[in-house]
Design goal:
Blueprint (H helix, E strand, L loop, with lengths): L33 E5 L4 H12 L4 E6 L2 H14 L6 E6 L5 H15 L2 E6 L15 H22 L3 E10 L13 H20 L4 E6 L5 H4 L7 H13 L5 H8 L4 H10 L11 E3 L4 H6 L1 H6 L13
Parallel strand pairs: 1-2, 1-4, 2-3, 4-5, 5-6, 6-7
Helix pairs in contact: 1-2, 1-9, 3-4, 4-5, 7-8
């Protein structure tokens, strides 16, 4: 299989946290901010929620369908909070059901007030497979859980948003890669998710919106399946099955990250330092100091936009 080349915007490629994105940096403080993370009970979502608690958020609320995972996640987040003043809440909600989403957000705002930061992280990984033999039901399920759920949370969020709202959409490289055999079911729905958020950002310019590719987390290395990003679950089996064993170590070094990397990177994205990334698509692997050097170029050009290559529209 001919995989897309892993190009990088920055010369430095990160796989674990580093000082520039530390949630304890005063410049990244989330003090006074109310944060909601969908899919925040496990994996990347939990890591993001933990990082905001470490940044001193006023409250961190997580949404999901599994109460046991939400309880575990809330306990872990509370333990990592840098101040006892951070309120940690969880709400059970099926994000494909708008009434449940509305009820969950109302419960949260009744307790803590307006929402300042929304991390739309929950998603669904359809069964991999080539399209000629693909079950349409899997494809439609992907649209329901990767597109409709995002629309529901965004629509519910806006009326309850604070004065300087931020939305971080956890996306995937599969949405902008050229086709990867077997990943079509996922890539199609996530590309639709990305375009939905693109329209949302355009129609709501008062909201700071950023799309984030969190990184690749191989399940067989860390022994924690819940910590694997969706793209990692798809790409890594395909990669290891189609490349020579001598390439395995090199591939693992490129693909493997710690969940704390996107967790802390999300805190940086919500900070004033990242204002130049409004409506852009970024990878958590990219180096923050190098991106800051490119800030004016990124802000004033189509760099990191989702577009048709070679066409200036």
């Amino acid at each position: 299989m001919d995989l897309p080349k892993l190009d990088s915007l920055t010369k430095t490629w990160h796989t674990e946290p580093y000082p520039s994105i530390s949630p304890t940096r005063p410049e990244l403080s989330a003090k006074g901010k109310n944060v909601i993370v969908t899919g925040g009970g496990t994996g990347i979502g939990r890591a993001i929620a933990v990082a905001f608690a470490q940044a001193g958020a006023k409250s961190v609320s997580i949404l999901g369908r599994r109460v046991d995972k939400l309880k575990e996640g809330a306990e872990a987040i509370s333990k990592e909070a840098t101040t006892k003043e951070t309120k940690v809440l969880y709400e059970k909600a099926d994000l494909s059901d708008r009434s449940q989403v509305d009820a969950a957000l109302k419960s949260i705002t009744d307790q803590v007030g307006k929402i300042d930061i929304l991390v739309s992280n929950a998603g669904f990984l359809p069964t991999p497979g080539q399209l000629l033999d693909y079950d349409p039901a899997f494809l439609m399920r992907g649209f329901e859980l990767n597109v409709l759920t995002t629309l529901n949370i965004l629509q519910a969020f806006v009326p309850l948003a604070g004065p300087e709202p931020v939305v971080i959409n956890t996306s995937t490289a599969i949405a902008h890669f050229r086709p990867v055999t077997g990943a079509g079911g996922y890539g199609i729905s996530k590309a639709a998710n990305l375009k939905l958020v693109d329209y949302f950002a355009w129609e709501n310019p008062q909201i700071h919106v950023v799309n984030l590719q969190p990184g690749f987390v191989p399940t067989d290395l860390n022994g924690h399946p819940d910590e694997a990003t969706d793209v990692g679950k798809i790409l890594l089996p395909l990669v290891t099955a189609t490349h020579a064993s001598r390439d395995h170590e090199k591939l693992m070094m490129a693909f493997c990250i710690l969940a704390e990397l996107p967790g802390q990177f999300a805190v940086w994205l919500a900070s004033p330092e990242a204002k130049f990334l409004k409506s852009k698509f970024v990878w958590s692997n990219w180096d923050v100091p190098e991106m800051l050097e490119k800030a004016e170029e990124i802000k004033t050009t189509k760099l990191l936009d989702w577009k048709l290559e070679g066409i200036a529209m």
